[in-house]
Amino acid sequence: MKKLVSFLLVLTFVLCLIPAQKAKAVTEFTLNYPNVAAAMLVEYKTGKVLYAHNIQKQVPIASVTKIMTLILGFEAIESGVLTYDKILTVSAEASSMGGSEVFLNAGEEISVEDTFKSIIVASANDACVVLAEAVAGSSQQFVAQMNEKAKELGMKNTLFVNCTGLPASGHYSTAEDVALMSRELLKHEDYFRWSTIWTENMTNLKNNTMITNTNKLIRFYTGCDGLKTGFTNEAKYCISATAQRGGERFIAVVLGMENSDDRFSLAKELLNYGFSNYKTSTVIEQGQSFEGSAELIVRKGKKDTVTGVAAQDVSELVEMSAKPQYTVTSVPNEVISAPIKEGDVIGKFIVYSGDTEIAQVDMLAAESIDKLTLGDYIKAIFARWVWV
Q1: pTM of this prediction?
Q2: What is the pLDDT along the chain (388 residues), one digit of tens a residue?
Q3: CA-to-CA distance for 359 and 111, rounded, in angstroms?
């Protein structure tokens, strides 16, 4: 027994001499394509930039432009301006587009659903103009809306001249702005109805067009489910690619690459870098309450208390080996008075990583509470009198 104790003591001493292994630090991404105009990697939820090369350089982006076209199209669906089963008539302007197309004829009819499919899978210029005219009345009015939306999203170095990305003087964007509109498009879940189609025969169209996805990563990169490729002689080869594995999603933007294979290769390398080195950590979930946000006093309400819950999710991007510690402080309003509607802002949550504040989130009322009426006061007084 004494020998065993002695052995354990020696073993403990030896282990204490071995230095603790530090978490492996993330190495900086190495760009092996010096001729690329711009490249970028961002994490979808947080928007954190993990790699940046010339991301504010204004360059033509070819059909990557159609990301914004699709955003406005989905907004039209969600607002009720369009429905997927609505039938649209192809104009002469739309049928004359050329480039990538599904060979629509002037006067031909096409459903809104097939219009979206043609744009997302085949990058069809003719379908883009059909959609633009349906949303805004004309392609020119639609382009004005595209530029307004760009301003709304904070795209400071973008100007759209058309809805297709076909060569046009003064039509440009940046990798940074492409990442912004890519994140916005991914908020529209209907996009994924068509984004992973590889090939399909469009039997509803007069020309019975066979479409093939322009994004090879859809088929050859695990988790890839979008977004948009582009090519013109001026813009060269471009892509905004996204992939999701588990709960992680990254967006890789590559603009102005000399050849198509290198475009896809660099996008894959960027995505691999993200998945290998980073993870998102969920700090707050929408609807969650915390210490200090339950049973908050309500003045003049038919209920005396209300619970405050988080208005939205909060996630933080961390290195794969990191084990962050978070705290959430509840800061309700000093006075919370009825009437209260469910969802009213009644305070805020402050999120800390260690001693550093990383986010603030609105605290919302979990339920509606009506204001006491004169009759309620009279009933309360009468009830007290009865019990005296």
Answers
A1: 0.83
A2: 444 434 444 344 333 443 444 445 678 999 999 999 999 999 999 899 999 999 999 999 999 999 999 999 999 999 999 999 999 999 999 999 988 899 999 999 999 999 999 999 999 999 999 999 999 999 999 999 999 999 999 999 999 999 999 999 999 999 999 999 999 999 999 999 999 999 999 998 888 899 999 999 999 999 999 999 999 999 999 999 999 998 899 999 999 999 999 999 999 999 999 999 998 888 899 999 999 998 899 998 888 999 999 999 888 888 888 888 889 999 999 999 999 999 999 999 999 988 889 889 999 999 999 988 877 656 766 656 655 4
A3: 44
Token reading at 202 = 């469009």
Q: For the stretch 281-316, what's the b/e string if a residue is b when 16 or more beta carbons lie within 10 angstroms of its beta carbon? A: bebbeeebbbebbeebebeebeeeebebbbbeebbb
The string of DSSP letters for 197-237 reads --EEEETTSTT-EEEE-S-THHHHSTTEEEEEEEEETTTEE
Residues paired with residue 278 on neighbouring β-strands, in sequence order: 319
Which of 113, 78, 47 lies closest to 188, judged by CA? Answer: 78
The Cα–Cα gap between 192 and 197 comes to: 9
- 140: Cβ contacts below 8 Å, ≥ 6 apart: none
Task: Return the structure tokens found at 323.
Answer: 């084990």
Contact yes or no for 270/252 (Cβ under 8 A): yes
Following DSSP, what letter does each residue of 289-354 receive, concatenated? --TTSSSEE-BTBSSSEE-EEESS-EEEEEETT----EEEEEEE-S--BS-B-TT-EEEEEEEEET
Helices (H) and strands (E) in the chain, counts: 10, 17
Q: What residues are labeled active site?
A: 63, 66, 123
Spatial distance between the Cα atoms of 266 and 175, rounded to a whole number of angstroms: 14
| CA dihedral (105, 111, 116, 117) positive or negative | negative
* Helices 112-122, 125-136: inter-axial angle, 10-degree rounding: 140
DSSP states along 79-99:
HTS--TT-EEEPPHHHHT--S
Q: What DSSP character marks residue 190? A: G
